[in-house]
Amino acid sequence: MNRQKQLDDVRKTSTWDIIIIGGGATGLGIAVDSVTRGYKTMLLEKGDFAQGTSSRSTKLVHGGVRYLQQGNISLVLEALKERGLLIKNAPHLVKNLSFVVPNYDWWEGPFYGIGMKLYDMLAGDLGIAPSKWLSKEETIQRIPTVEPEGLRGGVVYFDGQFDDARLAITLAQTAIDQGATVINYCPVINLTKEKGITTGVITKDIESGEEFELRSKVVINAAGIFTDEIRKMDDKKSNPITVPSQGVHIVLNKSFLPGNSAIMVPHTDDGRVLFAVPWHNCVIVGTTDTPIKDVSVEPVPLEEEIEFLITHAARYLTKDPVPEDILSVFAGIRPLVKSSDDSDTAALSRDHSIFISRSGLLTIAGGKWTTYRKMAEDAVNEATTLGGLPSQSCITEGLNLHGFKSVTDPENHLHIYGTDKSKIDEIIKEESEYAEKLHKELPYIKAEIIWSVRNEMARTLIDVLSRRTRALILNAKACLEVAPEVVKIMSQELNKNTDWEKEQLKQFNTIALNYLPINQ
After folding, report:
1. N or C: which end of the chain has fewer CB within 10 A?
2. For residues 180 and 175, what is the distance between their CA atoms, to the nearest angstrom?
3. d(C-alpha 93, C-alpha 413), whole Å
4. What are the backbone dihedrals phi and psi of residue 346, each rounded to the nearest 5 degrees, phi first?
5. 175: phi > 0 → left, psi -120 to 50 → alpha, else beta; which?
6. For 232-255, what is each residue's pLDDT tens digit?
7. Model-level pTM?
8. How far apart are CA 421 and CA 282, in angstroms?
């Protein structure tokens, strides 16, 4: 995945079947679907792939227990099917995870037990494993640090877990493997029109300043939190279709939740579902749901959101976390599809919607990571009709994603690269020091930095430490300590000078400080 080669493709081709705006889960999924149907496909991302919402999830591939509570059976069915397909198509990135719902009231066991049995039934042949009731002793055995006072037992069920930013990069690689052109740091600065009909885009390469005018039969707006910004570019009078809601997660040491099971809390003070999930030898606790007015690529967690998570975690864990225990805190913004009452984000739709403007701009909004593939299929189906493209069937249900490897070693963190792991091993052979860990508190090695620059379009320090590796999310303090060494490795690979290194460190430090608890 070479960025210069992708730019060369842009220079050679002026007309496309489908141009996609946005390199998050939705846009990348559309690129894979579109190109595998045989359409000439281009994706443009204004920043880095998954820079926004798509790298800031709870890291779950799930049917949505909350939607089951709400009675939204159709959405649960769709998500459970997509969960099963993703586990089959990307086993190097998605794994099964057990979740325990601890019961403290007499009615919770039967209530949630029956609910989880329905969840199993809806999954059908794509189910992972059957749920079951647990005694108090069995619950403590699975969750040794669960609060024992008043505990009656629990219910265990199964869902999927993944690395969101790594899946995004994998989708970009898959799209390119199939023949698509995919570029980061190329914002769309305008739409082109003829007789009021959208005919393409004008984009600009941030690094060189070069502009390109590209024609397309269909332009798809998959810009996530910037969806309405693109719609305004199309029509200044367009009404917003999304409402932003901020979700925050805190990351704790593995000692707070030893073992391999997650905790699911079905009801918090604000009516949300809360998770404590083991991930990369840490524990992620989240999430919040806070209505906000303005969107930002780097949203900042609010003090009350952090306090909310600490308070709820303390209710269910014997070891009560305090702000000093937090290794990292990260925020993401959900672009929820607007409803008639937008005062309560918990009531807004997580389901996806497709809109077509008078000029023919196709916009897709809403949804979640688990259903990205189905969202892409629906969008391309609409685009086919809109652009008069030859009808071709979607094939992504059975498409193995880049790096597909059915058997991996989960104890080796390099397993997420799938078949590309052998190529990282080749980098280590170039120089033995490339096998050295970046930091004793982080799993990553120097070879991964080199790989991400050479083969994954990593252009900045934040690209590498936040999304190619997940160092910033796992341990912000350790990440700040290792940043000077990482930027030197990148500088050598990208043939940059010390001024570039200083600017990168300055930008990174500004962002990384927001990943530390507010009072640290």
Report:
1. C
2. 5
3. 11
4. -65, -20
5. alpha
6. 999 999 999 999 999 999 999 999
7. 0.94
8. 23
